[in-house]
Please model this.
Amino acid sequence: MLAMPEPDRAVLARRAEIIAALRKIAPGEGVIDGERERRAYECDALTAYRQTPMVVVLPETTAQVVEILRYCKANAIRVVPRGAGTSLSGGALPLADGVLLGMSKFNRIVEIDVADRCVVAQPGVTNLAISHAVQGHGLYYAPDPSSQIACSIGGNVAENSGGVHCLKYGLTTNNVIEVEFVTIDGEVIRLGGKHFDSGALDLLGVLVGSEGLLGVVTAVTVRVLPTPPGARALLIGFPSVRGAADCVAAVIGSGIIPGGMEIMDKLAIEAAEAFVHAGYPLGAEALLIVELDGCAAEVDHLVARVEKIAADHGAASCRASQSEQERLLFWAGRKAAFPAVGRLSPDYLCMDGTIPRKEIGAVLLRMKQLEAKYGLRVANVFHAGDGNLHPLILYDANKPGELERAERFGDDILRLCVEVGGVLTGEHGVGVEKRDLMDVMFDEIDLAQQQRLKCAFDEANLLNPGKVFPRLCRCAELGRMHVRGGALPHPDLPRF
Model:
């Protein structure tokens, strides 16, 4: 059973007073306190877990964010930042005694700097809106999560989101060059800049992927790239998952870095094809989508090389896009795979673990064995090029015990990822979904060090508590000293 921090009864008793104070900071429609209206914020895209927030605040300016956080710090009130609510790990799960700080009104693009090839955007701007804003200049923003039409750039920063084209062009952390954020103390801090790099500690790298535990993002500067002069996509059908997995490793091993490389298994292929009609090979056990981009001659050369590699690994079919419209149709099926699979089952859990590419085939075979163990089906749709798995575990929450079985199934998949040399998350974050598995990957010293970093920004643990860390400690406890045999460690050091 998912455990969250116990509500502070003293804070709940002051709810009316807190709401009145927040209305002064964010007047008009800036505060949502009605029970029915608050339910719209009770979960993110991990809908298995729900909790109605004490109050929702929608600031419009950085100055309002500063005041809200200062007020919450002074009154020991917990705060959960929220972007578009597309998080798949429960990162924006509210607290019963907490302020849910929604950043949806921060929805403007502040600056398009073509000379420096960057865009300054508020955190509520959607991922896809950035590419739309610069496409007239022949530019685009490379990280493209499947939810890019809805997910916000602030949420992308919080979770270090990936996407189809991140194999070649990097995750969010590789494409963000500056972030403005507000600490729980109400201090506005800027990290990074339009310059190439910083000689100081990489605090920008620390903030990207910090899941709202360190501060609230109020502005993001992202790098935009020239749109490739051309691109073609290949649909490659395989009679076995192993063949598709081995082909992935062979393509990368040959020195080719595709713009994108995705795998879908038979269940996902059938669901996506029925949903989009993209021309996917329905008889295939696995489908590999490979996109090559660059100038026309380079693309044609790479297409021919990948076609040969696929044939050498037993491909049953191989079809290359002949137009931009057809290329986009190939990807439409992949982008719509998650909602398409939703037609197969009332509910599903979307997992997120990353493994070495060479282990893809073996891990998918182990998943089949786990399907039999738990009596639940899995549809696999994932970023094959960087080994970022997204197994969709199908279940029915209305059937007693199925959610619990799906959770145990998911836990076993993530343990398997770590077992083969991978990690618990690639782009969805830890949130609450993987929180209690963190000690599978990290020992006590690792986790304590991570919590010390959290304490440096938020010593009272008011920002997004209950996420990421399986066991919370007070900051003072993390600094304790162990005395063994009555002797202090390193007695030669001065003590203060």
